Amino acid sequence: MEVGSESSQVRCDKFQAPVIPRTRLQVWFIRICSSILLWTCLVQLVAVGELWHPKFFTNLTNRISWFTRFPTRDEVVVPPPQFLPLVAARNYTSNGFLKVSCNGGLNQMRAAICDMVTVARLLNLTLVIPELDKTSFWADPSNFEDIFDVRHFINSLRGEVRIVRRLPKKYNQKYGYKPFVMPPVSWSNEKYYVQQILPILSKYRVLHFNRTDSRLANNGISRDLQKLRCHVNFQGLKFTPQIEALGYKLVHILQEKGPFVALHLRYEMDMLAFSGCTHGCTVEEAEELKRLRYAYPWWREKEIVSVERRSQGLCPLTPEEAALILQALGFNKDMQIYIAAGEIYGGEKRLAALRAAFPLIMKKEMLLDPAELQQFQNHSSQMAALDFMVCTASNTFIPTYDGNMAKLVEGHRRYLGFKRSILLDRRKLVELIDMHQNGTVSWSEFVDAVRISHEKRMGQPMHRRVIADKPKEEDYFYANPEECLCEVTNCDNSLGDGNSTQV
């Protein structure tokens, strides 16, 4: 038996296939190919899945991209907030291409981009990535992709409107095609775009809006379109990873030291020149500001009486006035004050009174290494994006002027849970300041008057003020996008009887 078994084993060995050992290179090659195949399948699954369940897959891809990022050693990783959900993807035949050239500073352009996406959605157009202003006072050479995450912008709005990076070649001016160029009428409603603009597209196929500031009405817009404006603003327009990383770092440095106030001190040369506000300036400074105003022909208002402008509440507070108001509102010298602004006119000399009252004055240039800010130098919009992030995250936000940044930060803070934003009544304040400084009103009376006049100006829920036929005077949509807020917070329950704002 043993011999037979042995001979049987020998016969089986004769017919056994030889074993060829795999080399280490072959093993790694198989692993790499398998990984590529698996990732390709995953990407295809997500792409197809977005057509069926866009909300689920968008949230999934956002989380994947967040957790697979490798932060730098000094980067503070803060999870992105949860924003408005995407609606089901729309299938539509494009009526043409919409090209836009935004004008103004960062936040004016931001609001304009939201409006232009909404117009593209209304007219079933394909939107080309917007061009940013490079010819204004700031002369910022930044492109859209230098400030905003382009891929995120396109993907997050995929369910609403088609967005492309550039026009197809056949519509390129290099090939002889000339789009129809025009500025749309300011504060226009849906009827204007459907009846006046859509017929132009049927003829030209490509329409170029060369001005975009305030071209969509605040009110009288369907709720779906109003919510789309919020969707673009709060979800679609995400800053680049470089800007977000540095912005989060600034916030983290400030938060480690305690609560802080973001003071949007709009006491900058361009603001003073174009508003004509020279209160507190020397005669030489006032003349310099006037020359700058005359140097820009597009600024139509030339002769301005500063005293009248200030008494009407149309001037930003000076640093000295801001110090008085902060003290009257109850902030003490131990409070961190982050100055969100460009270069203050008059430099550190003009900040002396404010710094004396609040020694913990902070600016991004003081909190960050110069090398970290170097990539943003001479790019005012990118610097403004950093300030925007800090203002949005601050414990209290106080703008000294109600420009575009102040309004958009106010609206963003309302969206994030009605975070406290003290919206100064400058007309009342300059009157009180003058009365206190000439001895008519004591300090205690001044403090009481300031606090009482701002009890209902803390960014709490309220209806947007509507003024028929006066869109420039009514409340700005992006400062109080109530259509996007009151589903999660019942605004009506938070309003007092005397707080109705319908005019």
TrEMBL record:
<dbReference type="GO" id="GO:0016020">
    <property type="term" value="C:membrane"/>
</dbReference>
<feature type="domain" description="EF-hand">
    <location>
        <begin position="421"/>
        <end position="456"/>
    </location>
</feature>
<comment type="pathway">
    <text>Glycan metabolism.</text>
</comment>
<dbReference type="GO" id="GO:0016757">
    <property type="term" value="F:glycosyltransferase activity"/>
</dbReference>
<dbReference type="InterPro" id="IPR019378">
    <property type="entry name" value="GDP-Fuc_O-FucTrfase"/>
</dbReference>
<keyword id="KW-0472">Membrane</keyword>
<keyword id="KW-0328">Glycosyltransferase</keyword>
<dbReference type="Pfam" id="PF10250">
    <property type="entry name" value="O-FucT"/>
</dbReference>
<keyword id="KW-0808">Transferase</keyword>
<dbReference type="InterPro" id="IPR024709">
    <property type="entry name" value="FucosylTrfase_pln"/>
</dbReference>
<keyword id="KW-0735">Signal-anchor</keyword>
<keyword id="KW-0325">Glycoprotein</keyword>
<protein>
    <recommendedName>
        <fullName>O-fucosyltransferase family protein</fullName>
    </recommendedName>
</protein>
<keyword id="KW-0812">Transmembrane</keyword>
<feature type="transmembrane region" description="Helical">
    <location>
        <begin position="28"/>
        <end position="52"/>
    </location>
</feature>
<keyword id="KW-1133">Transmembrane helix</keyword>
<keyword id="KW-0119">Carbohydrate metabolism</keyword>
<keyword id="KW-0294">Fucose metabolism</keyword>
<dbReference type="GO" id="GO:0005509">
    <property type="term" value="F:calcium ion binding"/>
</dbReference>
<comment type="similarity">
    <text>Belongs to the glycosyltransferase GT106 family.</text>
</comment>
<dbReference type="GO" id="GO:0009507">
    <property type="term" value="C:chloroplast"/>
</dbReference>
<dbReference type="GO" id="GO:0006004">
    <property type="term" value="P:fucose metabolic process"/>
</dbReference>
<dbReference type="InterPro" id="IPR002048">
    <property type="entry name" value="EF_hand_dom"/>
</dbReference>
